[in-house]
Amino acid sequence: MSLMERGGVPISPVTGLAWTSNSSTCPKDFSLITITEDGAAANFTRSFAMKSGYYLCYSKEQSGGVVLSDVRILSEKDAIPHGYRFIAEHLEPKVSVSKRKRMCVRVVPMGSVDTAVLDVKVTARSKMMLQHYTCVGDIHGYVIWCKTGPFTNPIPQAKPRSVSLDLRGLSLDQSVPPSLPPSNPHTQPPGNLSMRRKDLTHNHVDVTTAIDGVPFTLHPKYDFQISKNLQLNPQLDDIRIKSLQDIENEYNYTFAVEEHAAKRTRPSALTKVAT
Asked: What is the DSSP string of 41-65?
């Protein structure tokens, strides 16, 4: 009958309103309002001749991320306001809602507003007043009341993640840093560390990377010190490492022929004429 907890504490905003024939046609995550605040049956009927009516149902399911910011009742001559829509109808066959007065709601994203509809109540006698509630209007002798106010968005809970045993063994408080392979002395001198690394070292924080403690080795096909029982890449068998003297001996050229040819004296034209 009420969307409030005992004691008047709002538990969550209303996220949906709809018409339904009974509990069997009521959608999932919706609850029926079967009794009014003054104890009458909350069965909305178009006339006394109707054998079955319909009920108002509500939802507070927040998985959709929307809330109701306003509820209005319009007559058949009123145009629906911008941003509003008629509430859904989940009725049995051959049952319809009266068009003379219809209920519409404004649905907005949960994070876009600070206040929303917190509670909806129904009364059978229009003379009954509900404190801290706003009268929305009447439909077929029943009066709809709404209470609006601030609400708190649900805080998402972080999902626990499994941590492997290897990662649990890592600690930033280790007194002895993990052993590393000797680095190339020509890569970077120790004094050229970044300012961030210097600050971390000054604060006695052990900087751990993903490759700390991993030994450096060559692939077997490029390791010439590998055991003779393993077969090396046949393409590497033809490679011969030459020394500087070998290269000079193989490709040395003195240019003596060119130098001797340059020193030869050619006969001039005058010598040929005299002859």
From this structure: B--B-SSTT-S--BEEEEE---TT-
Q: Is residue 16 exposed (0-12), middle (13-18) or buried (19+ Cβ within 10 Å)?
A: buried
Q: Which tens digits make up the pLDDT trace of 181-208? A: 555 545 455 555 455 555 544 554 555 6
Rg of the chain over Cα atoms, rounded to whole angstroms, equals 45
Cα separation of 154 and 113, whole Å? 14
> Which residue from 152, 144, 122 is spatially nearest to 71, judged by alpha carbons?
144
| 3 state DSSP class of 111 | helix
Q: Which of 188, 183, 187 is nearest to 215 (CA)?
A: 183
Q: Nearest 5°: phi and psi at 248?
A: -65, -40
Q: Could you give the CA distance from residue 41 to residue 48 in angstroms, rounded to a whole number?
A: 14
